[in-house]
TrEMBL record:
Name recorded for this polypeptide: Uncharacterized conserved protein YkwD, contains CAP (CSP/antigen 5/PR1) domain
Keywords: Signal
Stored SUPFAM superfamilies: PR-1-like
Region described as Disordered: 32-53
Signal peptide per UniProt: 1-19
CDD domains to which the protein is assigned, alphabetical: CAP_bacterial (cd05379)
InterPro entries: CAP_dom, CAP_sf
Signal found in the keyword field: yes
A Pfam family reported for this protein in Swiss-Prot or TrEMBL: CAP
Length: 192
């Protein structure tokens, strides 16, 4: 029985990954190379809006995450009490979309890119923050699969570590993006 479960568990772990910063994660920006460039694109403070064809799905996914947060839930065996709503953030969307596109283009599945960029570096590059002191907390969920946005959110909900990321009461903002079969959900809260 154990021999039959191991491939299924390995497959699940390969398809979903949750990340929150840890003490070994670099909080120093990586100097962008020509291939990665700046996510902000220019010095404007107005980031690109999410693509119009996904607006309805994004609103529905945000509503589903907020409904879960307002009701509270069990993530695996761990109970999480009700907590506040998250708001959409266009800079987090830029960071999420950049990571989804990068994973798709370079054919990898990880919170850290082959060049060493992690979620913190993407938050700086997108203009969400400019230094480590600007952010209270952040996290990232990633998934891989041929499914829609609502299914991606459902899959994260079914995974205890991803669900815990969605329920973390320190987060205030969210964005979700995808490119091909690569899905990225980014959370954050900035110092005021």
């Amino acid at each position: 029985m154990l021999k039959q479960l191991l491939p299924a568990v390995s497959c699940l772990l390969a398809l979903l990954s949750a990340c929150e910063p840890n003490v070994s994660e670099s909080l120093e920006p990586i100097v962008p190379t020509e291939s990665t460039g700046s996510l902000a694109g220019n010095d404007n403070d107005a980031p690109a809006d999410p693509p119009s064809e996904t607006d309805t799905a994004i609103v529905a996914a945000l509503a589903a995450v907020n409904k879960l947060r307002q009701a509270g839930c069990n993530c695996g065996t761990e109970p999480y009490p009700a907590t506040g709503k998250l708001v959409w953030n266009a800079r987090l969307f830029e960071a999420a979309l950049h990571h989804a596109k990068d994973m798709h283009a370079q054919n990898y599945f990880s919170h850290t890119s082959p060049s060493g960029e992690n979620v913190y570096h993407r938050l700086v590059a997108s203009g969400y923050i400019s230094a480590a002191g600007d952010v209270l907390t952040y996290g990232e969920n990633i998934a891989f699969g041929d499914f829609d946005l609502n299914t991606a959110v459902q899959k994260w909900l079914e995974s205890p570590s991803h669900c815990a990321n969605m329920m973390r009461d320190t987060y205030q903002e969210i964005a979700i993006a995808h490119d091909g079969n690569y899905w990225v959900q980014v959370f954050g809260a900035k110092r005021k």
